[in-house]
Amino acid sequence: MTETRTEKITEKKVLTLGFIGVGWIGRNRMESLINKANIKPVVIAEPCKNNASEALKLASGAVLVESPDEVYEYPGLDGIVIATPSALHASQALTALTKGKAVFCQKPLGRTSTEVAQIIQASKEKNKLLGVDLSYRNTKAFQAVFETINRGDIGNIHAVDLVFHNTYGPDKDWFYDFNLAGGGCVMDLGIHLIDMAFACLGFPEMTHLSSHLYRKGNKLESNQEKVEDFAKVMMLTENDTSISLECSWHSSTGKDAIIEAVFHGATGGVSLKNINGSFYDFKAEKYQGTQKEVLVMPPDDWSGRTGLLWAEQLALGFGFNSKTASEFLKTALIIDRIYGR
């Protein structure tokens, strides 16, 4: 096991959690934790009055405070859930961990690998559990793909095709500010694809990467620090597996979204694909020649599952996890290379 237990617990405990940021995603994760985990939300920091009001309807008895500083110092907290704009993730996660609190953070954990490394170091030093909401990894469809590959059912993987087109794009202004977001569609969408692909491959080292980033049809130069809305990336791993990544905001796709991860093996193939343009409904399929086997179809209530797994581990007393920490850092390093950092 790579997790370290912080205390001996024979039964799951009731977790007392603080929440920093309770916009739509923050409230969704809060609701999932309240309904499906043994948790008690006790303190909330949220500057938007409407968001705060909606959150308090879910978390009766929780205290609303004016700043994250009051959450870090709130007595008796087991952990803090962070769902704020990306620019705030690193400093908030770092402070929470330094104060001795476990952290579950929306992606990205940091805007750069340097930020991510600092957070991981704090998690290690304090032996506190660190989770990141890379939520697609815990869909039933992805789990079927992962298990198919790891059983060796389709042989050695030599190529992976990754696609995530969001026809709408984000609706918050900060997403389009490079300094606040850390990047564009790669940081928002591509991070999920990279995480899924490299998880299936065992997070091998990458030997080659070329990226082409565009903004409103114009190619961006390396390290130009403008938010891209279209990305085309080619990667090669140490095992000679080629990985193609394509993602975008506002592309004309004829549907709400295209989300695909297709793995090509020596003796077959396997894929995760969204259904009818949905952001939520996924299927997994296995291929052999002209034959197709459906592995998973909806329904699957997956959106809060990653947070639930974090809460379960936290309740059992787990602390720093070197395996997941290494994965978070490797993904951040890949994204740095995509942006020419």
TrEMBL record:
Residues covered by the Gfo/Idh/MocA-like oxidoreductase N-terminal domain: 17-133
EC number(s) from the headed UniProt entry: 1.1.1.18, 1.1.1.292
Domain GFO/IDH/MocA-like oxidoreductase: 142-268
GO molecular function, one term: inositol 2-dehydrogenase (NAD+) activity
Alphabetical keyword list: Oxidoreductase
Pfam families documented for this protein: GFO_IDH_MocA (PF01408), GFO_IDH_MocA_C3 (PF22725)
InterPro entries: Gfo/Idh/MocA-like_OxRdtase_N, Gfo/Idh/MocA_oxidrdct_glycsds, GFO_IDH_MocA-like_dom, NAD(P)-bd_dom_sf
PANTHER family hit by this protein: BCDNA.GH03377
Name used for this protein in its record: Myo-inositol 2-dehydrogenase
Organism: Legionella wadsworthii
Gene designation per UniProt: afr
